[in-house]
Amino acid sequence: MLHLTVQDHPIPRLGFGTWQLEGEDARTSTRTAIETGYRHIDGAAIYKNEKKVGEGIKDSGIPRDELFVTTKIWNEDIQKGRHSEAVDESLDRLGLDYVNLILLHWPINDMPIADQVGPLAEIKRSGRAKLIGISNYNQAQFLEAVSASEEPLAAIQCEYHPMLDQDPILKTARGFDMMFTSYSPLGRGEAMSNPAIERLAEQHGKTPAQIILRWHLQQANVAAIPKATSKAHIEQNFDIFDFELSATDMKTIYGLMKPDGRMVDPDWAPDWDTGVAA
């Protein structure tokens, strides 16, 4: 497993995403992921599966201090200033005393950034979250959040895959020595069918998904959180530590990125940045 270190906390760079995992699938898939070797679990209150994810964590039998667990505060709780209560509710559902990282799930466009990030400091100081961060912020919001937070932000999570250029946000995260976590790292499947990635997969004797995940992990400060339900896909996504992509391979994948390659764009999203390929 590859790790990065943020604020003296080692973080596994490959995580297991739990978005769209429902019912017992959330429990069994989380347990299977941990048994496979994942030690970074990413969740959120709005996924409506924290109780089952927590059961999967407990079922695994892995000591709590060996796991890095992330959850997120949903928009309505941010708007109402219920940050602290929302964290307590997530911890209760997860069956945990703390999470390693708490994120604001989305920026609230008509709410001062300082009011959104401000309550995170107390949550960190109380020990209920070891690290704090944000998700889905654009560049201007990101910079304002860093400035407004009383405790240093540790991470930003955004959509990122070979079809989407996120260079401005990536450079900012690296400048603050923060983790950039890629969600939808496989581009919802679109990237895996790209001929250039298929050729690289054939050359390395790997699947397209494995090529893409390796590409993420070979970038400075980047972690990735693919989701999977089947045991086979969970194991395949983890089998990326026995090869490396060359500089030429990396450049080939960078060349696929587009500023308008976004696949997640809800009505409440901010005005997105346009990037320049890395």
Automatic annotation (TrEMBL):
The record marks 72 as: Lowers pKa of active site Tyr. Keywords: NADP, Oxidoreductase. The keyword Acetylation does not apply. The active site is at 47 (proton donor). Substrate binds at residue 105. This is NADP-dependent oxidoreductase domain-containing protein. GO terms for molecular function: oxidoreductase activity, acting on the CH-OH group of donors, NAD or NADP as acceptor. SUPFAM superfamilies: NAD(P)-linked oxidoreductase. Residues 13-254 form the NADP-dependent oxidoreductase domain. Belongs to the aldo/keto reductase family.
